[in-house]
Amino acid sequence: MNPELHLRIVGGLQIVLALLHLDFRRRFRWAEELAALSLLNRQIFYVHALFLCFVLVAFGSLSLLAPDALLEPTRLARLVLGGIATFWGLRLFCQWFVYDARLWRGQTMPTVVHWVFTLVWAYFTATYAWALCSLG
Questions:
Q1: How far apart, in whole angstroms, are the C-alpha atoms of residue 96 and residue 48?
Q2: What is the pLDDT of residues 78-88, one digit of tens each?
Q3: What is the residue range of 105's domain?
């Protein structure tokens, strides 16, 4: 198993995920859904979504373009890998313990999507944790 290869894979997947976010506004009908919010809360929501995309591109670019730097046994590499592993581990936790199961349970497509994202978040978390542990 090659941690550099898996870092490149998760890097590419994170960039794809950021690109998918570009369609979220339309797909999830944010304009209609968020209309009831105050202007400030609506703008905070959009800014947070934009910054999440930026974080995904940053994590993805670093992993895709510089996996060798992440695998150098330096303090910075350990901190970055640990931070990204924690980020994705918390996202995996949210998948099961923050999102209400009523959103997917008993419905075929939402259940498939739930499990696909569970596996993706687990793969991201495991890849960064594995890379961190490989540094010794």
A1: 22
A2: 999 999 999 99
A3: 3-134
